[in-house]
Amino acid sequence: MKLTFSADDEAFRESIAAWLAENLTGEFEKIRFRGGPGDEHMYFEERREWEYRLAEGGWTCVGWPREHGGRGLSIEQQVIFHEEYARAGGPGRVGHIGEGLAGPTLIAFGSDQQQSRFLPQILNGKELWCQGYSEPGAGSDLANVRTRAVFDENKDKWLITGQKIWTSLATESDWCFLIARTDPASRGSRGLGFFLVEMDQPGVDIRPINQLTGTSEFNEVFFDAAECDADCIVGEPGDGWKVAMGLLGFERGVSTLGQQMLFQNELDEIVRIAKANGAAEDPAIRQRIADAHIGLRIMRYNSMRTLSSDVGDGSLEKAAMIYKLYWSSWHRNLGNLAMDVLGPEAEIIESEPYELTRLQSLFLFTRSDTIYGGTNQIQRNIIAERALGLPREPRPPTN
Ligand SMILES: Cc1cc2nc3c(=O)[nH]c(=O)nc-3n(C[C@H](O)[C@H](O)[C@H](O)COP(=O)(O)OP(=O)(O)OC[C@H]3O[C@@H](n4cnc5c(N)ncnc54)[C@H](O)[C@@H]3O)c2cc1C
Fold first, then answer.
1. Could you give the maximum distance between any two Cα atoms of the chain, in Å?
2. Tens digits of per-residue pLDDT, 247-281?
3. Whole-structure pTM value
4. Residue to mutate, 142, 176, 209, 371, ligand 1, most ligand atoms under 8 Å from C-beta
5. Which of 58, 61, 227, 250 could be disulfide-bonded to 104 (CB atoms 3.0-4.6 Å)?
């Protein structure tokens, strides 16, 4: 197993670090370390401008193949990119759902026409995307979606009707990719379609959901005969599950590996406070800080192990299946540690406008880490069934 990167990769590290040092200054100084989960409402327009700056420098969609406008970076270099981005305090990316989910899915499954229509607008940061998978009755059991898609011959369009929920960044998004039932008689994973739906139209009603953090990063989205062009279905009617699952592979893939540097920033901040306010004198706190440090090193070595055994086609091996369960539990515990290090201060917001500090927001938002992108229980099922080959848990029959 290799524990370091090659000389070429380290040279690449220097080039991205230098570009960030040169560009993430001046008007962008105030958005350093801002945005991202729990902080998405901050400096949205400024972060949008930053997205354009990244695009001008060719630093969006760095893992996409060159023929689709990306940099075609190796997995190692993508990890390095994300590491340096976080180290420099790069703000939460407003275009991450398009770049990390919609784009790779269109590259893998989309038509030429869909690729030429949508990919350039993701690359240049002009069009933002959201993910319309979950519904009130379909979360972990995603195949239970009830949203319907009916083809209207007169309009030559699909009409989408149903309710999605927990749709992150829907209010900021131009487009939503969603799964809907094209065959009304079907159940389970059959009879679904994967659609690309424009958000700014009369048939789409977005209602923000208030979160623990006081902000509304996710939303309910109601579709009432929302129109979707005939050529905005990815694959054929009935292919929706295959496309949707392909997309989840991207969600759990390389894009999450670079986040360890963000975690390091948070742990550094906690250690700094512990030293300053005396919490570091408490043996129990010292132990937990040491454990957090060890957990982060384990994540690092597990990522390197995964990269070492990558076969070159982007597929991550079975060992990678532990990653979501591990990082989400670690991160949730880091939120607890942050509160205990802050002590009574953790519960105080000093004055108007009563905004949470980064660590308060970290604590509250990390409650959701073990839920989104597949809950901890579902991750354990995945590890048991797909990595360890244990018998599958009983599933309801499909027709
Ligand atoms: C911050 C955040 C952002 C999100 N963003 C989006 C988004 O942009 N788009 C989107 O489509 N969705 C989004 N989601 C939704 C997310 O994907 C779902 O919350 C998640 O899949 C769980 O589904 P659920 O909430 O319906 O819970 P349920 O599936 O109802 O689960 C409830 C509980 O039962 C457990 N459980 C369920 N099935 C099993 C089983 N088979 N075995 C063992 N235990 C089980 C779960 O682990 C959980 O503890 C987001 C969620 C959060 C928290």
1. 73
2. 877 765 565 666 888 899 999 999 999 999 999 99
3. 0.93
4. 371
5. 250
